[in-house]
Amino acid sequence: MPLKADLDAIDWKILRELQGEGRITNVELSRRVGISAPPCLRRVKRLEDGGIIQGYRALLNAPALGYDVVAFCLIGLQHQSEAELKAFSDRTRNWPIVRKAWMVSGESDFLLHCVATDLGTFQSFVIEELTSAPNVDTVRTALTIRQIKDEGTVAIG
């Protein structure tokens, strides 16, 4: 499959390092990828400007902050017109409990990744928000038991 971006081996090394440690200094990054600091900084800037690097964020320990419930919801809509799909997509952006959302193919139309403080909060969200949302036909939920893997979103070899 052809790449959508023109990246060389150094760019891939930069991406691997930044995905593993986003707060690394440019000097340390340049040392790890084998180039001097100024061209390393230019490459990072080019990757940012080109949309390859979309941003940087802190990874928070949800349970330590009192967010003990992680669940996934599969949502089926009654109608899948473009307007209805967009309306539901927009609605997900207003639900803080929904941390990530995907439009999917198959038996469901959307997959929602939800994080809540407790089971009651999640249940209230499902009953009061999801099942009562316009055009929602089915809601299937899966509570997680234990996270067993947490890697960067792109597998860089």
* SS content category: alpha+beta
What is the overall shape?
elongated
Helix content: 25-40%
Series of H and E elements: HHHEHEEHE
Mean pLDDT: 94
- Count of individual beta strands: 4
Key features of this structure:
19% strand, 5 helices, 4-stranded antiparallel sheet, 157 residues, alpha+beta
Mind explaining what this structure looks like?
The protein is α+β, with helices and mostly antiparallel strands and 157 residues long. Helices cover 36% and strands 19% of the residues. Strand 2 (98-103) and strand 3 (110-116) form a beta hairpin. Helix 1 (9-20) crosses helix 2 (26-33) and helix 2 (26-33) packs across helix 3. It has helices at residues 9-20, 26-33, 37-49, 82-92, 119-130; strands spanning 69-77, 98-103, 110-116, 136-143. The protein has a 4-stranded antiparallel beta sheet. The protein has 5 helices and 4 strands. The protein is elongated, with a radius of gyration of 20 Å. The mean pLDDT is 94.
How are the SSEs ordered, and which strands pair?
Blueprint: H1 9-20, H2 26-33, H3 37-49, E1 69-77, H4 82-92, E2 98-103, E3 110-116, H5 119-130, E4 136-143
Antiparallel strand pairs: 1-3, 1-4, 2-3
What's the quick description here?
The chain is of the alpha+beta class.
